[in-house]
Amino acid sequence: MIRVDGRTLRCADVVTAASTEGPLGIDVSIAALRGAESAWKLAEELSTRRIVYGRTTGVGANKEDPVGEGESPDHGLRLLRSHAGGSGDVMSPGQTRAMMLIRLNQLLAGRSGLSPELIGALAAAVRTGALPLVHRLGAIGTGDLAPLAETALALTGERPWLAGGVPPVPVRAGDALAFMSSNAATLAEATLAAMRLDTLTRASHAVAALTYIALDGNPEAYATPVHEARPHAGQVACAAEMRRLLGMEGTPKPGRRIQDPFGLRAFPQVQGPALDAIHYLRDVLAVEINASTENPMISTVHQDAYHHAHFHTAYVSTALDQVRATVHQVAELSVARLGDLVEPEFTGLRPFLAAGPSGSSGVMILEYVAHDALTELRQAALPATLGTAVVSRGIEDHASFSTQAARAATAAGSAYQQVLACELVAAVRALRMRKADLVSLPARDAYEAAAAVLDPSVEDRPLTEDIARAVSLLDTLALV
Fold first, then answer.
1. Which residues pair with residue 305 across a beta bridge?
2. 81 with 229, same domain?
3. Distance of CA 88 to CAs 49, 91, 159, 303, Å?
4. What beta strand segments (E) does 5-107 contain?
5. What is the pLDDT of residue 56?
6. In Å, how far are 301, 366, 425 from 370, measured between CA atoms?
7. Same domain for 144 and 198
8. Most Cβ neighbours (<10 Å): which of 35, 171, 267, 447?
């Protein structure tokens, strides 16, 4: 059961919602509903005695255009219709479910001024698993206007549902902007991507540990005294996790090489920034999915409306850019370790872990697949925040592009899992061929999980299925 009260929604709850087909168990706070209704009543009253953007005026560059009291409901419906111009692919069911849960939770923070009927309809849609048809394109990180307008029109009965549906409700005065003024769709994709990258970085410890064993790595690089000398949190955590997986004490014995290549030796120093960046991103998202972002903000405490820029998500976009950049660096090390695994100097085995007649290719193709995926990841890692946009006749003269940064994070996760899978396939083959003894090591659990599903045959053959199975193993390895 997911608690929805505008304050305590977790990133893990968003993942649960995204992965739940059909009805979703939610516990909607009665107190939060009452607070949201109080904000609506206040917004209605304020609109009779002062200018309130989007309620008594147009929006964007039309902010000086007055909306008469009798025109307000019709104005709201026209505003939704005009902004429901999304394009491109249809948003995935998982992201749509996550978007709706986040938007409901934000509304229950009680500062939107949205009518109780529309909040109730959204809650019913989330609870029953109803899915509106929403397009992906239509936002630049300053409010998911098109996706949320399409969602609102589905609740009013004007747009179709992909699955299920709820009885239509009317749009009241001020409802349009109060519903659209959010980045819930962007936050949904950002949260799902962040949690996926979190899983992959945790799995990468186990994959790197298996490669370390296959290569007879030098444990000094992970020694406690080394990381006490420069104690960045992520770096220290990575080194500690490698020591745990490899059954090392604080100061392990020297390895057979005086120094390993960077893929093993610099793993904590490169993985650490990624761990720290993901931790920071999750903190940012935890704030955002529980935040009141509606402009204007209706404050029942101060009995007034405040015009502001909480729709601007620079925190989200910059955190996403940092995560993608750091994950790309970690992926480069994974590809480097794959290169070590096909090198006889490091494994004592034949080139490319081949078997059979001379000239056999073994896992040669894995390097090409991994570098292809790494190139995709490199493109996804390019900063989204370097651009900007000036729209609405120059009134809105900056954009965060968090929407694009979130999409790139999704792409980064898809590419990174392919890179890790290639390394895992090669590491398991090398360990099998070397008949490595993992009996006393915690990493044994990772090896046994992989060995149980990866084909043990070493003759030249297509490795497509091996890579796919390795990808499916990463969730398990993240928990080893």
1. 298
2. no
3. 42, 9, 17, 41
4. 26-28, 87-90
5. 83
6. 55, 6, 11
7. no
8. 267
